[in-house]
Amino acid sequence: MDRRTFLRSSLALGCSAAASPLATPMAFAEVPGDRRLVVILLRGAMDGLDVIRPVASPEWRAARPSLAADAGAGADLGGGFALHPALGALAPLWQAGQMGAVHAVSTPYRDKRSHFDGQDMLEAGLGSLEEGLRDGWLNRLVGQIPGARADLAYAIGRERMLILDGAAPHASWSPEVSLLLTPQGQRLLEQLCERDPLFGAALEEAMAVAGSLPEAELAGRADHERLADFAAERLTGAARIASFSLNGWDTHARQDVALKSALSRLAETVLALRGGLGPAWERTAVVCLTEFGRTFRENGTGGTDHGTGGAALLFGGAIRGGRVISDWPGLGEGDLYAGRDLLPTRDVRAHLGWMLSGLFGLSRTALEQVVFPGLDLGADPGLLA
């Protein structure tokens, strides 16, 4: 899509339109203050044991004879962990304290290992599916911040963005029609809308969004980089919260190839965010989440299957990085969950909750009762600088 490809809002009519170079769901929200949060959903179940590798574990090496073959190639993270070589471009962020990880974590989802249910649990932020998927935790977050606005909320693509669904005001956008606008066509739209303040304002905003990333800037950029460029451009304006997805993490076979490709795209996305945010990067926290981890042992096709415990990745100038934070359970036969998976020792929502508390000043009560209902936050892991 180019900057003249317009997307009609599902929450407005007539001249309300916006454009984007992206082809993946994305959400934004305006909140008071100067700190920023970016939530990247890694759809498909990222293998945390291959991304943040417990290289000091003889059990890990024995259970993954092919996947651990290049165990000495990644950056040393300390504490017996090493970084997957495909994230080597991000090692300077680790050294600068702008990259970190939490390990042996998961949502409360257990045993069935369905991508769909796991992603719903992750985006809803609930303790069980039985509670009902009424809204997403980012939407509930926005509703708890005084003066917050969610009128810059976009879902670009037809996929549902549960993480921002809910009662707090937001706009969902989906591609309905593509228009190639000539200057005359743009002027006609302006004339049609100029007598209606609502539609006129919507058109003005749409044109501003459409022109925010000139086509020349997008030339030669991959989709994930264009996505990050657009997100950074909005976050350097009024938006303070963004969420979008990266796919390609389901590595049942030839994980050495598939995961390398996915991690390379993630590294390029993070570096594009940093470049686009400029000085705002110092006040930004990026958290990368996935629906569950993968099996401890590699399978017969050089991949791994759906598991339980995994890792979340953190980036940005607002985080206190250079650390793998974990209550590490071990990888011995008796240490594994159900004899097959990394055992989760902490709810990933607790890490998210403490991050939200530091970024936006939410109380423990609001986090445990509203944003993540029923959660016990536990001790503060000190994720923020």
Automatic annotation (TrEMBL):
Pfam family, one: DUF1501
Coiled coil location: none
Organism: Pseudoroseicyclus tamaricis
Signal peptide stretch: 1-29
Superkingdom of origin: Bacteria
Alphabetical UniProt keywords: Signal
The keyword Transferase appears for this protein: no
Record-given protein name: DUF1501 domain-containing protein
InterPro entries: DUF1501, TAT_signal
